[in-house]
Amino acid sequence: MKSQPECFSCLYGQALKTSRLLNLPDEQCKAVLDRAAQILQAHTLDSTAPQIAKEIYQAISDVTGIDDPVEEAKQIAIRQVQMIDTSQITSLDDALKLSVIGNVIDFGAPNQFNLQATVESHFKEPFARNDIEKLEADLQSASSLVLIGDNVGEHIFDLHLLKVIKQQYPHLKLSFFVRGKPVINDVTLKEAEIFTGTAEVIDSGVATPGYDLSEVNQRSFEIFKEADIVLAKGMGNFESLFQQTPRDVYYLFIVKCQVIANAINQSVKDMILWKEEID
Fold first, then answer.
1. Angstrom distance (rounded) from CA 177 to CA 216
2. Cα 188 to Cα 134: distance, rounded to the nearest angstrom
């Protein structure tokens, strides 16, 4: 999905937000912003927001010497999610909804939402786009499923979703894709250790906050192509795959910015479970 001018403003703001999170001195903060401005100037609207974000966060690491600049934000998100009781979430519909609500945990989004408040306000609300009947039909005949992860914290809800799917469809081989290195607050191998015993964790090879097909490693791409079902969590994966994927993909996310809302003719805060079907 191509970027919009608003994406450039958002990405520049992320550079400042991360600098302040790290309590950088003003001169170092200015150096980060200068690098971000150079990166933004070098890109056209043909680039996706995740592709640009990759370069900006690498620049932040280069300036600061910190490999994972938002590690603190990740730990806060994990603690927030651990406070949510998932013991009563046993149906596929509810597990999907909780997983999508968890998508509000996004350091890179222009709009930030309180997790507990969103659970309370959204859990009884319907999906704005809801292809659960298609998903249930696909699950009946599937032998393999891939969930492409997004942010740390929400990955705990993703694990619960996969456990519910595994309980209902025990024959399924499950895989969970993570980023190849830290970028924004996206899930990596380090945080995905909790999936052991439920799903095989796959390093996708990408350093972008989205499953960018130009960067993926061969192993993850083969699994992606051959899986019977692919669930792509979050706006970054949507921005990377929408109208670019060679196969059907289910998108699961909550709309967190007007650019995405306009692109899919929905509203900010809408919950999405939508199958993009390739002719």
1. 11
2. 29
Question: What one-character-per-residue DSSP string does 110-139 give?
Answer: SS---HHHHHHHHTTSPPSEE-HHHHHHHH
pLDDT higher than 70, residue 109: no
Tokens of 153: 């914290």
In 91-226, where does DSSP find H-type helix? 92-101, 115-122, 132-141, 154-168, 218-226
193 within 8 A of 219, measured Cβ to Cβ: no
- d(C-alpha 57, C-alpha 199), whole Å: 29
For the stretch 166-225, pLDDT in tens is 999 999 999 999 999 999 999 999 999 999 999 999 999 999 999 999 999 999 999 999
Q: Is 134 exposed, middle or buried (0-12, 13-18, 19+ CB in 10 A)?
A: middle
Length of the chain: 279
Q: Which residues pair with 203 in a beta bridge?
A: 178
User: Distances from the Cα of 211 to the Cαs of 206, 235, 240, 279, in angstroms?
Assistant: 7, 11, 6, 21
Q: State the Cα–Cα distance between residues 265 and 193, nearest whole angstrom.
A: 37
The residue type found at 124 is K
- Give the predicted TM-score (pTM) of the model: 0.94
**Residue that has been written with the tokens 């019977």 in this structure:** 228
The DSSP bridge partners found for residue 147 are 176, 231
Q: Of 29-33, 56-60, 78-82, which range is least confident?
A: 78-82
